[in-house]
Amino acid sequence: MKTGGCLCGAVRYEVTGPLRNVVNCHCSMCQRMHGNFGPHSKALKTDLNIVNDQGLSWYETSSIARRGFCRECGSSLFWEPFDQDATGIVAGSIDSPTGLQTIGHIFVEEKSDFYAINDDLPQFEKSSEGSLPDDYK
């Protein structure tokens, strides 16, 4: 089991099943939410248990997904697509050690111009469409 939460502790969660390794999302929404790219793990919705939701708020960012954050401290925590059985979890909110590795980059066509991607991991102009290992479609 892995645990995690926000900066102030008003949101805490547990993941009872496997976590997908980290995918860096470079879309314009992640840039605004995270200040750069969004490093996301992912777990099945049935494996994600919110144990303290005192500060949890959801914001519908598009017709396909909503984002969960702490309304007390502002920490970004979740990306939840409406049509998938899984929830994206901001990797930095997972308690260490995570045991996770970065496996790829998505939405690189929207990447900001102030940094470069300097690794040899797979890059996708848009979504990976579930083609990265252990990704849930």
Characterize the structure shown.
The longest helix has 7 residues, at 28-34. The protein is globular, with a radius of gyration of 14 Å. It starts with a strand and ends in a 31-residue tail after the last strand. The protein has a single domain, classed as Metal Binding Protein, Guanine Nucleotide Exchange Factor, Chain A, CATH 2.170.150. The model has no long low-confidence stretch (mean pLDDT 96). The chain has a seven-stranded mixed sheet. A three-stranded antiparallel sheet has the order 1-2-5, with no helix packed on it. A hairpin with a 4-residue loop joins strand 6 (56-60) and strand 7. It has one helix spanning 28-34, and strands at residues 2-5, 12-15, 20-25, 38-44, 48-52, 56-60, 65-70, 76-81, 86-90, 102-106. It is 5% helix and 39% strand. The protein is built from one helix and ten strands, in the order βββαβββββββ. It has 137 residues and is mostly beta strands.
Q: What ranges have pLDDT less than 50 throughout 5 or more consecutive residues?
A: none
* Broad structural category: mainly beta
Q: Roughly how many Å apart are the termini? A: 22 Å
Order of helices and strands: EEEHEEEEEEE
Beta-strand portion reads 35-45%
Helix content: under 10%
Give me the CATH architecture, please. Answer: Beta Complex
Strand order of the largest sheet: 6-7-8-9-4-3-10
List keywords for this structure.
5% helix, globular, 137 residues, single chain, mainly beta
Topology:
Blueprint: E1 2-5, E2 12-15, E3 20-25, H1 28-34, E4 38-44, E5 48-52, E6 56-60, E7 65-70, E8 76-81, E9 86-90, E10 102-106
Parallel strand pairs: 3-10
Antiparallel strand pairs: 1-2, 2-5, 3-4, 4-9, 6-7, 7-8, 8-9
